[in-house]
Amino acid sequence: MDLRRSSILLLIIALLSPRTLSMRYELKSSTTKCIGEDIHENSMSVGKYFIVNPNEDHPLPASHKIIVKVMPPQGKNLHEADNVEAGQFSFTAYENGSYVACITAVDYKPETTLTIDFDWKTGVHSKEWTNVAKKSQVVMMEYQVKTLMDTVNSIHEEMYYLREREEEMQELNRSTNSKMAWLSFGSLVVCLSVAGLQFWHLKTFFEKKKLI
């Protein structure tokens, strides 16, 4: 019981903490960097990316282009963009699994280095209610209630997912125990058969040698 309560508490803490991938990294020409995120079914996900301009007073040079692909665990790509400087994507996960975003710097000679700013939010945090919430007290309360409702729904979905995983693990344990029992029985039969054959062989040998 204490273990279950601890698991629920950890789940609530995990859901209330930001599930956000926000980073800035360098990418050389014709190289690719992929970033993965484990997303549950029916969870909303949004992301945005752009090339950091090394000289803000001038437009980006022709060498600063990227190719972006967002891929689900299986099936068609959720987002594709070729030779762009910036973009964004959004989707609702249709299955549990690892969703991957890959960014490739276009091939360019001489080789150049791009700085990529990438931001990926999943679940409650992807809705960004703060962008629409106003300063009035009533609207702020409404915003907080919506956020709490989203958090509760996420917790419910997460608990349902964990329950399904627990049932799958129990079924796997039962199946494994059954297979191990049959394997043990088979090993015992083989051992007894080998012992019987050895006994028969020795008996035949000693009889031929007239030792018994």
UniProtKB/TrEMBL annotation:
Keyword Signal assigned: yes
Transmembrane parts of this sequence: 180-200
Domain GOLD, residue spans: 32-145
Keywords, comma-separated and alphabetical: Coiled coil, Membrane, Signal, Transmembrane, Transmembrane helix
Location(s) in or outside the cell: Membrane
Keyword Transmembrane helix annotated: yes
GO cellular component, one term: membrane
Signal sequence annotation: 1-22
Topology with respect to the bilayer: Single-pass type I membrane protein
Domain of life: Eukaryota
SMART domains hit by this protein: EMP24_GP25L (SM01190)
Family label: Belongs to the EMP24/GP25L family.
Protein name stated in the entry: GOLD domain-containing protein
Protein source organism: Arabidopsis lyrata subsp. lyrata
